[in-house]
Amino acid sequence: MTEPLWAWFAFIAFVLVMLAIDLGVFQRKAHVVKVQEAALWTATWVTLSVILGGVFYWWLGSEKAIQYITGYVLEWSLSVDNIFVFVLVFTYFKVPFKYQQRVLLWGIIGALVLRGLMIVIGAALIEQFSWVLYLFGGFLLITGLRMLFSKGDDDKNLDDNPAIRLVRRLIPISTEYDGQRFFTVKDGVRMATPLLLALVVIEFTDLIFAVDSIPAIFAITTDPFIVFTASIMAVLGLRSMYFLLAHVVHRFVYLQTGLAFVLVYIGVKMLLLDVVHIPALVSLAVIVSVLAVSVVASLVWGKPQVPAQQETPPPADG
């Protein structure tokens, strides 16, 4: 670990302050997040992320700064795939738009803790067993190829989700919402609301995505501090990005193909790390180019795939 311990505490303190501001100021009342508000917060998070890159350039040098920016762009682009799932989950559970921000906020808080633990474990494994990088590379290569040739089965019934089945076994589920509460009392019985089910699915989904994205960023750098800051900054901006892109994300029909190519590239890069050294700046150029091509191709030639709307709320139990 090259960075001092105070840098870790300073960054974590910054994250906690920003979350406190979000909870205490902007989350006091449930409200529909408008595009203007989402755009402002998205721009704020991107700006803060770029400023942090500038700090790293001044403090740690150009190489670390480039690794951070590359890792951030990689994590940010992979997190866009989460938005497709968010749209599906909120549609399936018919979550009122003004309550979606509460689910995403707590979902992201959980994701921050989860990713932090995964990064610490991953860094420790790499430090003790360098061959773990080859396992990561092989896993990413296989994942990218599976994404590339998948049939797009994301619209399956969410009742089959193992996280939902577990919650239903542990606690009774109400069929109705109670404002933005995760729990309610009905006929003297404490029950979870469908809002909690939506949160559980989102947390479970982020766990699945983190299994891909955390090994991917270790291909850019094995410095745990750079990995941690880049990943966390990308996740912090995910909620505002959802509200900005939720209504248009279905137009990016080739984005998953682009992300698949990125994962394949990262996987091959990790498998060849002892054969050829690919600078972080080259990886940044490849990632940005692939994503740009996939977005442009989607807008020019793609046929939007609008998620199917649910006619009735999903059953809460059974």
Question: Can you give a write-up of this model?
Answer:
With 318 residues, this protein is mainly α. It has one domain (5-301). Helix content is 70%, strand content 3%. The chain has a two-stranded antiparallel sheet. β1 (183-186) and β2 form a beta hairpin. α3 runs parallel beside α8 (224-236). The N and C termini lie far apart (50 Å).
Q: Which percent bin holds the helix content? A: 55-70%
* Largest beta-sheet details: 2 strands, antiparallel
What's the structural domain tally?
A: 1
Number of helices: 11
Mean pLDDT: 85
Which terms summarize this structure?
318 residues; mainly alpha; two-stranded antiparallel sheet; 11 helices; 3% strand; globular; disordered C terminus
List the helices and strands and how they pair.
Blueprint: H1 5-26, H2 35-60, H3 62-92, H4 97-128, H5 132-148, H6 162-170, E1 183-186, E2 189-192, H7 194-218, H8 224-236, H9 238-245, H10 255-271, H11 280-301
Antiparallel strand pairs: 1-2
Summarize the structure.
The protein is an all-alpha fold. The chain has helices at residues 5-26, 35-60, 62-92, 97-128, 132-148, 162-170, 194-218, 224-236, 238-245, 255-271, 280-301; strands at 183-186, 189-192. It has a two-stranded antiparallel ribbon with strand order 1-2.
